[in-house]
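Please predict the structure of the following assembly.
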Amino acid sequence: MTRLQKKRLTSIISTIFRTAVLIGVSYVIIQPMLTRLSTSFMNVEELYDQSVKWIARNPTLYNYRQCWVHMNYPQALFNTFTLTLVVSVLQVAACTYIGYGLARFKWAGSGLLLGLAIFSLVVPPQMIRIPLYLHFRFFDLFGILKGNPINLVGTYWPFILTAITGSGFRNGLYIYIMRQFFRGMSKELEEAAYVDGGGLLTTFFRVMLPSAVPGLVVVFLFSFVWQWNDYFYTTMFMSGKNFLPQALEQVASRAANVIHATDRVAVMSGLVQDNFSTVINNAGMIMVITPLLIIYLLMQRYFVESIERTGLVG
Amino acid sequence: MAKRIRVSLSYRQRQIIGGLVFTFPFIIGFTLFFLYPFIQSIIFSLNELELGASGYSLVWQGLGNYRYALLEHASFNERFVDSITDTLSSLPMVIGFSLFAATILNQKFKGRGIARMILFLPVILGSGVVLKMQTGDWAYIMAQDSANANYFAGNALNDILGMIRLPESVIEYLIDVITSSQEIIQASGVQILIFLAGLQSIPGSVYEAADVEGATTWEKFWLITFPSLSPLILTNVVYTVIDSFTTTRNPLLLLIEDVSFTGAGFGVAMAMSMLYFLFVAVLLIIVYAIISRFVFYNV
């Protein structure tokens, strides 16, 4: 075998291997999703009909219509989108800023602060839920407001305040990611900027920030997705308001209640009720995830481009 | 003027000022929105919380809540150990798989965009309300059933491995890898993304230089890719541990949730989460210390 032939053979084998692995892994990821999608078009009877496996015999949009009405979908979508966008933009900005400070300045506090950022991640949010709620319910900056605490629950403020100070949900992780990114960057560019007379902030915004775009996009994606799916903080600070995760949690029981109230014959047995919530929930889940998937598709394109551009620059 | 000030500052002072300028938001946020509630929850864990019409009152318990959690509660210890073994046994698999997947996704081939898109999907599907709704859901259970088909493959593998007489523990681990492949893949989305972004930031010129020197793919991986990714390996290890400790599906957190609203009360629940948290913190410090000795920074 010549060297050229050998090289071609290796490349063919590695292509086959790669394709096989990717198809296998993709199947594992997509299969539950497809099940969900196919279930969302079924009616309750078909769900436990053994002969109906993937495609509903009489595909119906009934479940989607139920979700549209009982989630108050347009309103929930708007609320979730606005909150998510505000929170994720602020979180990315704050965490990049803080991450840079932790990566590039060596002083007694830098190691300690990084430790604290990780420490804040390790504490499950369930643990500080009640004190945090009370904190915002009777917001009073260590007595500055002198016994006239403001109620911030039900407003955007708890989200905004925690986001701009890098202390929202999993922000320790974002700080850490950005810190690792900045640490991996070469120092020469930055030193050149200082020599040319750039101040701290100019150097950060004009020299370091543009090279950190891959990190920014990753952090933005995480922040957006986790805020979108979050029910923990939105339930805590925004209870009673209509956001997608809360709407999804309640949609099946709301729909069932309406049916109970209007149609006496349809009073459901336990099993039917379970199946009913399954088909409704699956449709609802698709409706919650779809906007996220669309945004993800758009971001993905930008993501691939942006990381490759910076990759070339090095 | 500005120039004169900068000259008069020592290197050290400049570091401190720069550090403070960039980290003060975090110092404020951490104190107000983390440390303060955290200290309060420590206080709660030492008390019995009684909710009344006009707010709450505390009844001092000392270490009573801790004693109850460790010595008297029926399933706390068991769940505690379970949740820690789960995390530690899946950690190497998640890191290995995500590194492997990121390396594949970084190659140039047809359909790479689609492959990336699919492999990152768990980032979206494996969080918050989506994850929560999966529990007790018919479609999800069905998907689990088909994953259990792997179980039979596992049995066959058991026989084969038994024939080559590997140690029992190695066999068990390998079977565990196969039967939990679905969970591993679903828990790896974030890590793949982090690794991939890291791979992209390695300049192509380094590889070209290596090619000129006649390095093999294997050498390039171990001498260029792996060291360049090592800070991110640390990131991913820390992330994976934290993720599995704080996910809504974690059995111990579910137990704590249960205890705080229906069971022994909020004080006990706080004591349980405090014990759990302390253990995780110590574990992370050890892991961090070990791995950061091998990390290579491009300074």
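Residues 270-313 of chain A form the longest helix (44 residues). Residues 124 and 170 of chain A are 10 Å apart (CA to CA).
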